[in-house]
Amino acid sequence: MCGIVGYLGDKPSEYIILNGLKKLEYRGYDSSGLSILTNNGDILTEKEIGKIVNLENLIFKNDISQYHSKCGIGHTRWATHGEPSKENAHPHTDCTNSISVVHNGIIENYSSLKDDLINKGHKFLSKTDTEVIPHILEDFIKEEKDILKALDRTLSHLKGAFALGILIKNSNPSLIGVKKGSPLILGIGEGEFFLASDVTAFLDYTNRVIFLQENDIVLVDKSGYSIFNNCKKIIRKEEVIRWNSSQAQKGGFKHYMLKEIFEQPEALYNSIIDKVNFEEKSIIFDEFDTEFKNFLKEDIKIVISACGTSWHSSLIGKFLIESMSSIPVEVDYSSEFRYRNRKLSKKTLIIAVSQSGETADTLEAIKRYKGDNKILSICNVVGSSIPRESDFTIYTHAGPEISVASTKAFTTQVIIFYTLANYIGRLRDEITEEIWVDNIETLKNFSKLVQDTLKTNSYINKISPELAKYSDFLYIGRGINYPVALEGALKLKEISYIHAEGYPAGEMKHGPLALIDENFPSVVLLPKDRLYEKMIANLNEIRSRRGKTIIVTDEDNIEELNNYSEIIIKIPSINEFLQPILITIALQLLSYHIADFKGCDIDQPRNLAKSVTVE
Ligand code: M6R
Fold it and tell me: pTM here?
């Protein structure tokens, strides 16, 4: 849940680390800190609560550039053990201030380790689980000449999933990274090296990377780096990242969220272009082998496991797969699925859906069934943990999503489900040639329709100030748009702190209608589909209780709808299966502008973090 940065090179380390931490602020932002090796060889640590800018001000005030440091580590925190405070902020050091550690993840057995260390005379300053690490290492460094052996013995005492950045005084190497369960990436520049939880931290300097693998330890010094696994030196493949650093910046938009909403035409196109051949009217998944393709033709079931927004896209995925094939699909929250006492038949395919690929509950859910069941993941972050635990992965290619509120990740997941559902339906001979061709054709101009949907931005901006005064909203939809109502409500509550609920419109009379009065507006998802008349009936129910309505529709006859609402968001029309994407984009903009009018911290809403790497 936190962000780690490490640097060794020729540049002022505090500058590189701060720059990296700013890029990682989305991973956690309740406090931050850094440790540098000074020109005297000492470790100097600075910490501050709140955002990275507070740490930056502190460092400026204390003028740490006077130490001409070329090596250091930094951390941005999202509290798990101990409240956000200077004491609990990372880095944490040992008793002699010779070892400094930054940590992402959880040390599950820290409490008993801490008791043992205190009994041996170690002094602790924080309430964190992290602080045991420098103290254990301190003892083993005294006993072992070889730093690798000392590290290995330290790691053998730690239970949990984590990544570490370590700085050691009077040692060559002085910068160390450890990956065990949480992401850690090595960046390789010209005579300089970086460690980070996410490549965005160092993309300003290099795009050459190594995604460290489970139990890797990387030792970095001026002459280069060495990677060890189980104390054996190994070679890991270097990769080149295609995202440039400006892709990970706000690009002129006021917030990352708005930028990411506007990136959707391209993100959606990128997500399918390597799969769909418009000329040949074919869909190819190079990710699958022949055995898996044959498996998809069998009498199978699918269970989809996901959290939050990814859970909503999975509900749409269920609708799509069940519409185009006879495969029954269940969707479960990963946090429930992982603890359910359930034996799945071998003929059950598990699909894990995650933007980050690091969500702890989804990761644990698939680990539980790995080996017994085939696991397919749909993921946005290449090389992240969930793909590595999966048999097959379809990447969404949405590019980096920085804003905590997920936008382009959701719509790209939906388009992948659309492509996959068509593919499975065709493979099983369960959709006709005519529908198949029509569904592929529909994708051809889709980016243009997404662009047209984004034109609603100025209208939505105009209507939002008036809507921002309400404290509750209901979102209703039917069929494939019921999950869209859930997603619209989640987006509003997450970034504007306004209470919102999503409901299937047919449930109104079974309870929610009691809420409706002039102070409780409803966002009504009204595509001109086979359930249109049913939705009009729901609109009437709301209007006759003096409820305010906001309609999102592709219906051209706006005149008719004027009788039901003064606020109508008109979006383009497309087939029933892709309409959720266009409706969602309008709802993303609605949440964004309401939250912006309220002056909320849109990209980093209170109490939330971008990737939830702890349960
Ligand atoms: O990275 P994941 O897709 O696994 O994340 C799952 C949820 O934490 C995430 O979608 C969350 O609900 C978003 N903040 C919603 O905008």
Answer: 0.76
